[in-house]
Amino acid sequence: MAGIAARRHRKRKLKAEINVVPYIDVMLVLLIIFMVTAPLLNLGVDIDLPQSDAKSIQEKKDPIVVSVDRDGNYFLAVEAGSNEAVTAQELEAKVRAIVAQDPKRAIFVAGDASANYQRVMDALVLLQRADVAKVGLMSQPKESGRR
């Protein structure tokens, strides 16, 4: 009878730990599934917008034109017909203020054909420092009779 009591005593002694290995395996499988399927999910929703006869709002503003004359002086034209002489520091400050208000405003550089190329490049650098993302270079079309 003493042997039976010892055997029962051994059976009662159970581990009080949770086996987490199966949970870790399941977690890793789910992690791999989500990593594979996440890029394939379409986050957008297709909707049909209502029809309307209203005209779209279009705000056409004159582009900003930075001119460099043959002597290397800078001129800034914010509105059509207004051309004011500015220094390099004034040019950068004014363009930075304008771009802060309207980042999509078109900006062009018009360099005189006989202007020093370095001064035109300096104007482009000033515009870049003023946080201008896109700059266009202005030119005139050639006359058909001239080559």
Automatic annotation (TrEMBL):
Main location: membrane
InterPro entries assigned to the protein according to its UniProt record, in alphabetical order: ExbD, Tol-Pal_TolR
Subcellular location(s) of the protein: Cell inner membrane; Cell membrane
Cellular component annotations (GO), alphabetically ordered: plasma membrane
Recorded topology in the membrane: Single-pass membrane protein
Heme listed as a keyword: no
Transmembrane parts of this sequence: 20-41
GO biological process, one term: protein transport
Pfam families per the UniProt record, alphabetical: ExbD (PF02472)
UniProt entry keywords in alphabetical sequence: Cell cycle, Cell division, Cell inner membrane, Cell membrane, Membrane, Transmembrane, Transmembrane helix
Keyword Ligase: no
Reported function: Part of the Tol-Pal system, which plays a role in outer membrane invagination during cell division and is important for maintaining outer membrane integrity.
Assembly: The Tol-Pal system is composed of five core proteins: the inner membrane proteins TolA, TolQ and TolR, the periplasmic protein TolB and the outer membrane protein Pal. They form a network linking the inner and outer membranes and the peptidoglycan layer.
PANTHER family for the chain: EXBD MEMBRANE COMPONENT OF PMF-DRIVEN MACROMOLECULE IMPORT SYSTEM, TOL-PAL SYSTEM PROTEIN TOLR
Family of the protein in this entry: Belongs to the ExbD/TolR family.
Protein name (record): Tol-Pal system protein TolR
Organism: Vulcaniibacterium tengchongense
Gene: tolR
